[in-house]
Amino acid sequence: MTSTATTVPHILLVNPWIHDFAAYDFWAAPLGLLTLGGILRDHGARISFVDCLDRFHPLQAALPLVDKRCGRGPYIKTTIPKPPGLADIPRNYCRYGVPPEWLRHDLAVLPPPDLVLVTSLMTYWYPGVRETIAVIKSVFSDVPVVLGGIYATLCAEHAERHCGADHVISGPGEAAILPMVARLTGWRPTPRHDPTDLDTLPLPALDLTRRLVHVPLLTSRGCPFQCAYCASHRLQPRMMRRSPTSVVAEIVHWHRDHGVKDFAFYDDALLVDADRHIVPLLEGVIEAGITVRFHTPNALHIRNITRPLAILMRRAGFHTIRLGLETTAFERRQSMDRKVTEEEFLRALNHLKAAGFAADQVGAYLLAGLPGQDVAAVESSIAVVKAAGITPVIAHYTPIPHTPMWEAAVEASRYDLAADPIYTNNAIFPCRSETFSWEVLTRLKTLARA
User: Fold this and answer.
1) pLDDT of residue 432
2) pTM above 0.70, yes or no
3) In sequence order, what are the residues at sequence separation of 6 or more whose Cβ sits closer than 8 angstroms to the Cβ of residue 210?
């Protein structure tokens, strides 16, 4: 590696707090941020990582809970005031993550960085991002802070006005990271990777986490579908894939070198073109002779599940399967997506059951809170899924800017969604025209669990 800068920079990566009515570690990790960390480290930069959501912080009085079946668990949380406009929501609003004094301690013991990179996820989590950046600046007042991630991409203008960062970067960061670091620090290493070829990128710097209990996997970027409620095309316009060989090598690395058993696929289209992607990938896992558990929190496309693939998934270690069903009103779903028919749904379930998956392993996401949707429609979908012998999983609809459904959401909402991303919080059913009722959500969840 060569560089035109005489001093290699120290770059701090920060995963910010979540401010919300509810949050839980469903195999979450700041994969994009740690991928950039891996790239920078591979070029010779000094990298540090501070995780505001750290479930295993050493200042805790007791060990945190970990679900031994899958590695998930709750975050530390502290009740905080609700944002303006949400005072009527009958539930506590919390800061999820370590207390502020712990964060200040973690920052103070670090060598001063030359640059701080902060990521962002849900658009309505920006208050946690803003608070995190404020603490960073109180400790490192002269260090430039750069914000990237999903909120920074979907709500760039809002982020520039409100988050407190010195710079906001939109879109995928792999191509932008080295030029941005060069501009802010003067360090200019010779590029070693091709951002358009995912196989050339190094492993994400997940080893910087305090305790690695699960690993997120991204075997592809983008999605061939254009669902009305999804921002995948905005976030990643081009479909790209890693080779199955490189993914298997990563799984084996985290399992054998770090003892990881639980892996979560976060692809938007994991099963598309299965014979050239997921099939050789899972065959490679089986040939490696490792025993691991795979989870699919981002949902699988149902029509791609064949009987041979279901059997292969079972053999390779799939443990938690989530299907992207969204609704069982098949005859009226054309305005949402064209991902699945009723026949394809039932056929896929038969394949999964025949492969040996239990009902509590297979869940179907059902969107609740869509513009114009009534509660009875969700209740009907829950009944259909339960009758099919699997688990209904309520997924609250989040209005997302730049999606085809955004205008309908704005029109249906009792909030001014365009004025502030805080009102897109899916926990409050923002597209219900009437006053929010927590009892409605409780009833749906009880019906799904019964």
Assistant:
1) 77
2) yes
3) 51, 54, 56, 57, 58
